[in-house]
């Protein structure tokens, strides 16, 4: 298995490149439109063929590159079936493994941050999207988010995984790359140390977070699998500009 963790600095997003050494097929998990050229260069450098993009959910802070990658190199678009996006090729469902060459992903339905959120288990890796972050979790106050659902997604589905499973989130704002299930159970300030549902409700109720500045453009664009709006204000243009040299994690 070939594995790369790639970092996009505008939205602090991690994209994950996984390649099958037997077939040369690759998948990009949560790719960002800003980093399209960077990601393709990495795929080509490794001698791989991009077969699929795989998003964990409809993002509110960046535009996915799924559609542009499909148009550019013919990769197929995989995303949660529950969101009923007309632009996808494969609808992901819990209990139905997602196969790319010899790579097998086990989808976990983990709603709460959004109502259509999925995490993906691959061997001892779990790509948790925004459901479980390093020492945190995604917010639950938009896109049909639900605090109780997120609590149960994490405690009933993610925290029951083996302690040594590696947690790879969709974002980190402090340049941390990876955690483990054990670490998050032990020290996550929102969900760890046996936090009760009522404690979690209280924490999330008092976050006092600002309205996401890109959400009104990102969500409609991502419901089309990655379309940058024509009316994007100048101060948000960086969210859709392609940056060949965006950082690598």
UniProtKB/TrEMBL annotation:
The keyword RNA-binding does not apply. Residues 12-171 form the Metallo-beta-lactamase domain. One of its GO terms (biological process) is hydrogen sulfide metabolic process. SUPFAM superfamilies: Metallo-hydrolase/oxidoreductase. InterPro entries: Metallo-B-lactamas, Mito_Persulfide_Diox, POD-like_MBL-fold, RibonucZ/Hydroxyglut_hydro. CDD domains: POD-like_MBL-fold. Gene3D superfamilies: Ribonuclease Z/Hydroxyacylglutathione hydrolase-like. GO terms for molecular function: hydrolase activity; metal ion binding; sulfur dioxygenase activity. It holds the Pfam family Lactamase_B. Keywords: Hydrolase, Metal-binding. The keyword Lyase does not apply. This is MBL fold metallo-hydrolase.
């Amino acid at each position: 298995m070939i594995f790369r963790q790639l970092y996009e600095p505008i939205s602090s997003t991690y994209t994950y490149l996984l390649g099958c050494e037997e077939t040369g097929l690759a998948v990009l998990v949560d790719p960002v439109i800003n980093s399209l050229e960077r990601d393709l260069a990495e795929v080509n450098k490794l001698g791989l063929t991009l077969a699929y993009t795989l998003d964990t959910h409809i993002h509110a802070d960046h535009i996915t590159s799924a559609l542009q990658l499909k148009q550019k190199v013919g990769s197929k678009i995989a995303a949660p079936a529950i969101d009923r996006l007309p632009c996808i090729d494969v609808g992901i469902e819990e209990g139905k493994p997602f196969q790319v060459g010899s790579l097998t992903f086990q989808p976990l339905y983990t709603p709460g941050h959004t109502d259509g959120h999925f995490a993906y288990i691959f061997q001892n890796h779990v790509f948790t999207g925004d459901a479980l972050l390093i020492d945190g979790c995604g917010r639950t106050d938009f896109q049909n988010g639900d605090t109780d659902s997120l609590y149960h997604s994490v405690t009933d589905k993610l925290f029951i995984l083996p302690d040594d499973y590696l947690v790879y989130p969709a974002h980190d704002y402090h340049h941390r790359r990876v955690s483990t299930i054990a670490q998050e159970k032990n020290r996550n300030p929102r969900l760890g140390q046996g936090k009760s549902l009522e404690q979690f409700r209280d924490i999330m109720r008092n976050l006092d977070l600002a309205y996401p500045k890109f959400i009104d453009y990102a969500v409609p664009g991502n419901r089309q699998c990655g379309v940058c709006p024509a009316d994007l204000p100048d101060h948000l243009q960086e969210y859709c500009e392609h940056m060949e040299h965006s950082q690598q994690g």
